[in-house]
Write a structure and sequence with these properties.
Layout: H1 2-9, H2 20-28, H3 37-68, E1 75-80, E2 99-104, H4 107-118, E3 123-126, E4 132-140, E5 150-156, E6 163-171, H5 175-184, E7 188-193
Helix pairs in contact: 2-3, 4-5
C-alpha cells in the first residue's frame, strides 16, 4: 500500500487516493489467528483507524476542492523554441521556431522536462507563464554551485546528514539550461513545481 501511495502522489492529489481498498485488504488478506495474535489485532485496529480517518478526511477535502475548483487537469501546454522531433539543419544548427507541446503534470512533467532539455530544447512558456518557476534541489550542505537561480530557502535533511534541500526560483526561459547545468553538476532536482 505504501509503494502504491507514493507512486499515486507523484501524479495526483493525496485526497484522490482510494483508502478503502487497502482497508479491505487488512481484513481479507490476514487472519485472526497465528503467531502473536494480540499484535495482529493491534495492527488491524490501528490500520483500520488510520485508513478510515484518512478516507473520511480525503472525502471532505475532495468534496470541497471539487465544489470550489474545476476538476484537476492532468495535462499542461508548454511552448518550446523548437520541435523536439525535428532534425537539426544541414549545418548542425537547430531549426528554431516556437512549438506547442501537451505534457503531463506533476512528477511526469519533470521527467519530460529533463528529456526535452537533454535534446537541447528550451522552454518559452509553461501553461502560459514565462515568469518565475520554483524547483527544489537536493545537494550537499556545503551549498550549491552557481546555478543562475534565486535561492528562496534551505532545509537540512535531518535523516541524511550532509544533505540539504534548496528551494530556488528562476524564469521559465531559464529552466532548460538550468536543468542541463544541474545534471552536469550532479545536483538532483527533487521537484519542478509546474503551474
Amino acid at each position: 500500500m505504501a509503494a502504491d501511495y507514493v507512486a499515486f502522489l507523484k501524479k495526483h492529489a493525496w485526497f484522490d487516493f482510494d483508502f478503502i481498498g487497502p482497508l479491505k485488504d487488512v481484513w481479507t488478506d490476514t487472519g485472526w489467528w497465528g503467531p502473536n495474535p494480540l499484535r495482529k489485532w493491534e495492527r488491524k485496529y490501528m490500520l483500520t483507524s488510520e485508513y478510515l480517518a484518512k478516507a473520511g478526511y480525503a472525502w471532505v477535502l475532495r468534496f470541497g476542492s471539487h465544489a470550489t475548483y474545476q476538476e484537476v487537469i492532468e495535462r499542461t501546454v508548454v511552448w518550446v523554441d523548437r520541435d523536439p522531433a525535428a532534425p537539426p539543419a544541414a549545418d548542425g544548427t537547430p531549426v528554431l521556431h516556437d512549438t506547442m507541446l501537451d505534457l503531463p503534470r506533476y512528477q511526469a512533467f519533470q521527467e519530460e522536462a529533463f528529456a526535452l532539455a537533454g535534446r537541447g530544447v528550451n522552454f518559452r512558456k509553461i501553461a502560459g507563464n514565462d515568469g518565475q518557476i520554483m524547483l527544489t534541489l537536493l545537494g550537499s550542505d556545503r551549498g550549491l554551485p552557481e546555478t543562475g537561480a534565486r535561492l528562496l530557502y534551505t532545509q537540512p535533511i535531518l535523516t541524511r546528514p550532509g544533505e540539504t534541500r534548496y528551494a530556488v526560483a528562476l524564469t521559465v526561459p531559464q529552466l532548460a539550461e538550468a536543468l542541463r547545468r544541474f545534471k552536469r553538476a550532479n545536483i538532483r532536482v527533487e521537484h519542478i513545481y509546474d503551474y
